[in-house]
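URGENT: need a sanity check before tomorrow's submission.

F., can you look over the Lymphocyte activation gene 3 protein record below? I want to be sure the sequence and structure line up before it goes out.
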Amino acid sequence: MKPRVSLQDSTLRNGNFSLRIDPVRSEDAGLYEARVKYNSEVHTCHVELGVITVTLSPPNPVVENELLLMSCNSSYRASLVETCWFHNGHLGPTSRTFCSLPGALSMLRPAMSDAGSWRCQLRYSDNEIISATYNLQILGFDGPTNPVVYAAAGSAA
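Structure tokens as predicted:
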């Protein structure tokens, strides 16, 4: 896992033996064990790392008006019951919130207004809820809806 893994050397003397992984990959999911020997004593700690991934098809950059499929997957072991998508964190009738059976979010004609923060929320059979945020960028024209623009002769347009 080198060079993505590091220990915070400055905090070891204070008893902080945290492991830092940057960036986390889906294959990093699993059980981790730390063993610390102090004088004649050995202490162990177990931590399970779960990983959630958001993927786009086709991958970035997303082009305006081209079919987009966003999927959200987790290493969690229970059965997935529901996937919800929240756009820019807003709830309500105009919020662009989508909930579906396990699966992906399909946008037939993504627009510039679909760009921004998307949060996928996964709900499992044991009522565990896991979420991740993805910043969606869309390439397109974010100008006036009317393609005719008038300018005065002699001015800049």
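My own read: The chain has two domains: 14-49, 52-139. The two ends are 54 Å apart (CA to CA). If you see anything odd, call me.
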